[in-house]
């Protein structure tokens, strides 16, 4: 538990830790107001039942004379007003304190969920190949709120309730020590019995709920994401049934926890009523006077009235924390341990020392070269690429072809900087790619086989990832013209503001691919990658898309991954791959060689 508290505290930066300290100080003042409100009840009832106490008590007598009261009635009225004022001030202060507490915790929740999202987005490509998207979605949108609202906020509320309880019990102990000790002992034993019965079950339910949330997100993602295939194949029932099974488990789990939420209230209510009656019996056996017994019983009744929801909340908060602790383990793992591993994994994109500034990667001027590159995916026995060496001159178009599984997409992922070679290097204009990864990526455009279009306008989809106010419409139109889509978009009633629908469902396949080309050109890259970008298109549409690409030759270096010969007809160089090896090179001039000569790169940094 100490380790968990240390890790939770570590989620806050120095500034946020100061705010937490301020919250704890505010908590002590809130406890003081709670005790003050209850403590004033005893003297008020004593004076109300025995007015001559005003003269007998030195403090009350001094107040009576100093404030020049003319009668005990006036003094009592003033006491009532004062008591009400204390309760009003107490409640207003507690409301303000709660507001500050929620603000600090929920602001930090926003920061952590943003940090976790950023962590996932900046993870190496290999990380995303190994993790299910449903798990990542669950962690960001479900587990992080559980950590802050179910663990940290609950822990602060738990501390506040315990402080109030200790203060109230201290007051009761000073007035009726024997009865208070008896009641405290019985209450502690009963609460311990409750946790002994339910503690382990609560933790197990929390871990089970994580799996349920993951499966529910996974099946909804798969069913809705492949809605066309689901409808055509008539598999609606399969996906609905798979979702239903986990939804039923979720309902059962939720029902168990909701019922358990009510158990403490009923349990504590019965317990406190029993204990108040026990206290009454103890006080009566002590033969306390009627006036003293009335004020004492009023105090204990008010204390019980205040303690009942406190003890109920304490039990409920401990249950909530126990239930949500598994969420903290998952979030902490992904923020800390996985981040640490990333720098040691293959394909991690680890930070490198920068070479001299003269090696800066600028728009491609000479060539892209791979020197003896080999790669194996984690936990895979076979190598995906074996000793690949090739060179692509600037301004030329090169094709990488081969059967499915030949390694061509893996090769391009390495050239894109998504994967790091196990052996060998990628060299751009004589500079090792590891040294200038960010600059290199700013110079490349990527067109995948399946273009991801957001449910937004054509304008936003072309300028993908650019804030709306920063989009350059002239540049968008220019890119659409280069992609041979300008006339079509201009003919639409809303032009650039036309909504494309989710995943671009309102556009044809060719139009989606050409928007993908326009998107890849928006940042004016010097190198354009096409990863089987036309394989899903018919011959006529493919030719239209390739015509748009052909017009870019000379201005851009174009690298095309394909398995159809028609796609690469205009390429200057063709590299043929088979089972992770480069088996043939075909140059447009007609020269061919079975194996490329090893590349010797002079002047590249080691």
UniProtKB/TrEMBL annotation:
Bilayer topology: Multi-pass membrane protein
Domain of life: Bacteria
Chief location of this protein within or outside the cell: membrane
InterPro entries reported in the protein's UniProt record: AAA+_ATPase, ABC1_TM_dom, ABC1_TM_sf, ABC_transporter-like_ATP-bd, ABC_transporter-like_CS, P-loop_NTPase, Type_1_exporter
Cell location: Cell membrane
Residue ranges occupied by any ABC transmembrane type-1 domain in the UniProt entry: 22-321
Keywords: ATP-binding, Cell membrane, Hydrolase, Membrane, Nucleotide-binding, Protease, Thiol protease, Transmembrane, Transmembrane helix, Transport
Domain ABC transporter: 368-604
A Pfam cross-reference name: ABC_membrane
The UniProt record lists the keyword Transmembrane helix: yes
An MF annotation (GO) of this entry: ATP binding
Bilayer-crossing regions: 20-47, 67-93, 147-172, 178-198, 266-286
PROSITE patterns the UniProt entry points to: ABC_TM1F, ABC_TRANSPORTER_1, ABC_TRANSPORTER_2
One CC-aspect GO term: plasma membrane
Record protein name field: ABC transporter
Originating organism: Paenibacillus oryzae
């Amino acid at each position: 538990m100490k380790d968990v508290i240390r890790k939770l505290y570590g989620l806050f930066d120095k500034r946020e830790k100061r705010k937490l300290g301020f919250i704890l100080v505010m908590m002590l003042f809130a406890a003081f107001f709670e005790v003050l409100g209850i403590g004033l009840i005893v003297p008020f009832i004593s004076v109300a039942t025995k007015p001559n106490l005003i003269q007998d008590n030195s403090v009350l007598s001094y107040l009576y004379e100093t404030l020049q009261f003319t009668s005990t009635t006036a003094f009592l009225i003033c006491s009532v007003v004062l008591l009400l004022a204390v309760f009003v001030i107490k409640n207003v202060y507690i409301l303000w304190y709660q507001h500050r507490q929620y603000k600090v915790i929920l602001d930090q929740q926003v920061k952590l969920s943003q940090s976790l999202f950023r962590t996932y987005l900046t993870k190496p490509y290999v990380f995303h190949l190994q993790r299910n998207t449903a798990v990542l979605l669950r962690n960001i949108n479900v587990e992080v709120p559980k950590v802050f609202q179910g663990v940290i906020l609950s822990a602060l509320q738990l501390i506040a309730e315990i402080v109030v309880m200790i203060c109230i019990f201290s007051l009761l102990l000073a007035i009726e020590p024997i009865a208070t000790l008896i009641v405290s002992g019985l209450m502690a034993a009963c609460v311990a019995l409750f946790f002994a019965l339910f503690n382990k079950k609560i933790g197990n339910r929390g871990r089970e709920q994580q799996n349920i949330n993951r499966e529910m997100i996974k099946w909804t993602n798969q069913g809705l994401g492949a809605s066309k295939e689901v409808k055509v194949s008539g598999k609606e029932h399969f996906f609905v049934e798979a979702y239903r099974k986990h939804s039923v488990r979720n309902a059962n789990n939720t029902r168990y926890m909701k019922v358990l939420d009510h158990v403490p209230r009923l349990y504590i209510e019965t317990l406190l009523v029993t204990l108040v009656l026990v206290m009454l019996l103890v006080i009566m056996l002590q033969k306390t006077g009627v006036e003293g017994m009335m004020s004492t019983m009023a105090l204990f009744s008010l204390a019980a009235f205040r303690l009942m929801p406190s003890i109920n909340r304490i039990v409920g908060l401990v249950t909530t924390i126990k239930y949500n602790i598994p969420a903290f383990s998952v979030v902490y793992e992904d923020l800390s341990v996985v981040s640490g591993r990333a720098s040691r994994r293959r394909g991690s994109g680890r930070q490198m020392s920068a070479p001299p500034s003269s090696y800066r990667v600028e728009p491609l001027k000479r060539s892209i070269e791979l020197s003896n590159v080999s790669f194996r995916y984690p936990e895979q026995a076979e190598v995906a690429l074996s000793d690949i060496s090739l060179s692509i001159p600037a301004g030329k178009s090169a094709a990488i072809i081969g059967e499915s599984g030949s390694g061509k997409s893996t090769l391009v992922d390495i050239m894109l900087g998504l994967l790091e070679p196990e052996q060998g290097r990628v060299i751009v204009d004589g500079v090792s790619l590891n040294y200038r990864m960010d600059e290199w990526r700013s110079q490349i455009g990527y067109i995948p086989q399946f273009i991801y279009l957001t449910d937004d306008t054509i304008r936003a989809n072309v300028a993908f990832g650019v804030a709306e106010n920063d989009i350059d419409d002239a540049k968008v139109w220019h890119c659409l013209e280069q992609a041979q889509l300008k006339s079509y978009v201009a003919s639409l009633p809303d032009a650039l503001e036309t909504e494309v629908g989710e995943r671009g469902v309102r556009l044809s396949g060719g139009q989606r691919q050409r928007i993908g080309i326009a998107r890849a050109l928006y940042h004016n890259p010097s190198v354009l990658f096409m990863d089987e970008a036309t394989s899903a298109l018919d011959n006529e549409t493919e030719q239209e898309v390739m015509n748009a690409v052909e017009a870019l030759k000379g201005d851009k270096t174009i690298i095309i991954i394909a398995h159809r010969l028609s796609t690469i007809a205009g390429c200057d160089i063709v590299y043929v791959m088979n089972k992770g090896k480069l088996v043939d090179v075909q140059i447009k001039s007609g020269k061919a060689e079975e194996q490329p000569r090893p590349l010797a790169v002079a002047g590249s940094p080691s």
